[in-house]
Design goal:
Chain lengths: 155, 439
């Protein structure tokens, strides 16, 4: 397994020298490793990127996919933008709340799930879209929810 | 439906595979283009009358011609592809990348040749993990194919969740490793874009249309569609329709045909109340206005636009004030905060719409809503706030009686609609530092 420092140096090689373009892909890599961008993780990333931890945090805080708080083992994101809303995203969301035992925007007590609503995921014609650990499930209906949650608990 | 051009062959074969794509003539247009001069390739694009498919509808060949020649401006030239598709209602680039990645890559290589660039960056929204993996796998297949790549590097760069990064200068900021906030223009990217170097920024569908244009010839392509809207368009159909999905149409097909023909009509035989014609940033149409060609001029006459071709059908159960809240909340959440009218105005719009929905608004609030919209329009660096204002003002314009009823009846007349409460509040979005600060 490559260590994070080496991985980030490899990412930096994709971009012209002297630029900071590697920051977003590096933060994705850090988050993949640790689940979220803790202050320690941001320090580690900053060191490998030759920027300050504060700069990393300033960039990260702009983007919705980058977590600055701990998240559960699985992240469930329900699209609630117009097309999904018109196809029952609210009911899907409420079913998830009931199944995982926490409200949208929260992490379940057992640390298994973080549930949140997100803006348009770009799958409007296949509503409702739910991103499970960054992978899309399409045409999700409320009755599909218990199966999805069970599958993740078992996995 | 017209013969597909962008998605041609994707139903019959698995065009994500290099061998399959080459078997249907893939990468031949690239060889043809390289046999021409960059100038002539650009002229071919001008002749095709192709206009940008990302939403701004700017003439593609003209855009390329704005890039200075390397001898005029001796800096690296860049091609940046905008694959940050995030407009509510649009999901066409998602499918194009997932189904015809090699046609897209071929388009990147032809475009890079035309603007004399050796470095291509594809900025894909971070959420599109599926299309990302397909694209990366397609690029992997090209390793060692120097006949195709010819020294051009293509880097796929993932965004991390920010609608504003679909705006080209915000995208460039983000690609440079910064917060994605739009730049002032001028200078335009053609002269000073990525790393302050000459840069062309094109949308995924635009790029994927380039190889077929070279293959068939620009003037042939220009015969498709209608005047000012040449060619085909991949339209995304969603909302209250039977068959949501992407359909490649010839420009000018009627909106009725798209919704009732391709989309299969409205579920349960319900009445079509309204249509968002080009993503949530475009002005709304009533259900009676769909006998209109889906093209630039025809929609322009109705005061709206094709935008990024996200067509959202809305049936009779939907409250337009609730729709306004949902749309306004989206733009409020996605405002980058740089320009005051957008940052503050979108919050005011949401707040006033919520008052209306709760039955707490007086006549003055409805006037104030339109006034706030007016104070955003034309007063920001980028179109984000403006499109929010235009969209919401159009709901009031087209459905004024419904807004008035919220005031007169002291609440929402749709309270017994089965869709009541359909609009999940954006306040539930986790991790949004501004929300934390503002409480």
């Amino acid at each position: 397994v490559t260590d994070l420092y080496t991985e980030i140096q490899q990412i930096r090689k994709r971009y012209p020298e002297g630029t900071q373009s590697a920051i977003l892909p590096a933060l994705h890599a850090v988050q993949e490793r640790y689940g979220w961008l803790s202050p320690e993780a941001l320090r580690e990333a900053a060191e490998a990127l030759d920027v300050t931890p504060a700069y990393c945090r300033a960039v990260a805080s702009f983007y919705d996919m980058l977590h600055l708080q701990p998240v559960g083992r699985h992240v469930l994101e329900v699209c609630t933008n117009v097309s999904c809303a018109l196809n029952g995203a609210q009911q899907v969301l409420e079913r998830f709340e009931a199944e995982v035992g926490c409200k949208a925007g929260e992490t379940s007590d057992d640390g298994e799930f973080t549930l949140r609503t997100v803006e348009c995921l770009g799958g409007c014609g296949w509503a409702t879209i739910v991103a499970v650990d960054e992978r899309y499930r399409t045409h999700v209906q409320p009755d599909d929810v218990p199966g999805i949650v069970q599958e993740l608990r078992n996995g | 439906m017209a013969e597909p051009i962008v998605l041609a062959g994707a139903d019959a074969r698995d065009l994500t595979k290099l061998a399959e794509y080459e078997a249907v003539g893939g990468y031949r247009a690239l060889a043809e283009a390289r046999g021409m001069t960059p100038f002539d390739v650009t002229e071919e694009l001008k002749a095709s009358q192709l206009r940008g498919r990302g939403g701004a509808f700017f003439a593609t060949g003209l855009k390329w011609s704005f890039v200075p020649k390397p001898e005029q401006l001796p800096k690296p030239h860049y091609l940046v592809v905008n694959a940050d598709e995030s407009e509510p209602g649009s999901f066409k680039d998602n499918e194009i990348l997932a189904r015809v990645p090699h046609r897209f890559i071929e388009g990147c290589l032809i475009t890079a040749f035309a603007v004399e660039s050796k470095a291509v960056y594809v900025y894909i929204r971070g959420e599109y993990t599926g299309p990302h993996d397909i694209l990366v796998a397609a690029l992997e297949e090209l390793k060692g194919r120097s006949d195709i790549l010819d020294g051009v590097t293509i880097v796929v760069h993932r965004g991390a969740g920010a609608y504003i990064c679909g705006e080209e200068t915000a995208l460039l900021e983000s690609l440079e490793g910064k917060r994605g906030q739009p730049r002032t223009k001028p200078p335009f990217p053609a002269v000073s874009g990525l790393y302050a170097s000459p840069t062309v920024v094109n949308n995924v569908e635009t790029i994927a249309t380039v190889p077929p244009i070279i293959a068939m010839g620009g003037s042939e392509y220009a015969k498709l569609g209608v005047p000012n809207s040449a060619g085909t368009r991949v339209v995304s159909v969603s909302g209250n329709v039977v068959n949501g999905g992407n359909y490649e149409i010839e420009n000018g097909l009627s909106l009725r045909e798209i919704i009732y023909g391709l989309g299969g009509g409205i579920p349960g035989g319900r009445r079509l109340k309204a249509v968002i014609p080009g993503g949530s940033s475009t002005a709304i149409l009533t259900g009676d206005e769909i006998d209109v060609g889906y093209d630039f001029d025809s929609l322009g006459r109705l005061g709206t636009a094709m935008g990024s071709a996200g067509i959202v059908a809305i049936d009779e159960r939907v409250c337009m004030v609730q729709l306004g809240i949902r749309v306004s909340e989206f733009y409020e959440h996605e405002s980058c905060g740089k320009c005051t009218p957008c940052r503050e105005g979108t919050r005011w719009m949401t707040a006033i719409l919520r008052q209306l929905e709760a039955g707490e608004a007086t006549q003055g609030e409805l006037d104030l809503l339109l006034d706030v919209c007016d104070r955003i329009n034309g007063k920001c660096l980028c179109p984000l706030g403006e499109t929010a204002a235009v969209a919401v003002a159009s709901y009031v314009d087209k459905f004024r009686d419904e807004f008035q009823a919220h005031i007169d009846e002291g609440g929402c007349p749709f309270h017994d609609s089965p869709l009541e409460g359909v609009l999940a509040p954006v306040a539930q979005h986790a991790h949004h530092p501004t929300a934390e600060v503002l409480g």
